[in-house]
Amino acid sequence: MAPPPPVLRLLCVHGYRQNERAFRERTGALRKALRKRAELLYVSSPLRVPPPRGAPAQPPAAGDGTRAGEAEEDACGWWFSNPDEDSFNALDHVETSKGLEESLETISKAMVELGPFDGILGFSQGAAFVSMICALKQQGDPRFQFDFAILVAGFRSRCKLHSHFYQEPIAVPSLHVFGNTDQVIPGEMSQELSTSFVDPVVLTHPGGHFVPVSAPQKPVYLEFLERFQKK
User: Fold this and answer.
1) Contact, 186 vs 210, CB < 8 A?
2) Quick check: is 194 catalytic?
3) Residue 103 bears catalytic tag
4) How does pLDDT run across 49-75, given as a tens digit for each residue?
5) Catalytic residue among 14, 162, 205, 209, which?
């Protein structure tokens, strides 16, 4: 009997106001579902999100679906749409941002120290960030070596400085997952991101802002990953 194909290695990129520990905890069901196909490794952003001044945790519209009062310790983000307050909102149309280069260097370092990786998975702001990394990979940036991307509840950054990431179709194989009742990142925003990619695989689910792993979704993940398993 032939041995099973090697397990794929995925670098996992958390959402806004999360960190690698929090995202690992929230993707336990995904790790279990993919355990025979993929190993999931996690990385934290270098950018710390300060607590709102004299206020409870930011509402879900800020980016990742963390409920009020549930902000994680050591909350992180991959870039800030409001550089003055070190905050982020996916709906902000802005001219400039802060922190993206530091975050790109963190991913580059993780790929060297934890890699190699077959794929990269991102959630919410992390998925938007992964789409930028895919664009850089396509442009020949040697820092980012992987074969595919899984983007859950992703979106196009509305920062004008980031528009160049979406000017050309991104040929990196991609799976786009989003919920029809997501009130944090509306499905139309995730659908829009998918159109930036060549031949994207799109998986919708009836839920909200989370990584879905119930019976209807699991086969789609496995079928997508099977394309990249070395026989």
Assistant:
1) no
2) no
3) no
4) 998 765 554 444 344 544 333 445 689
5) 209
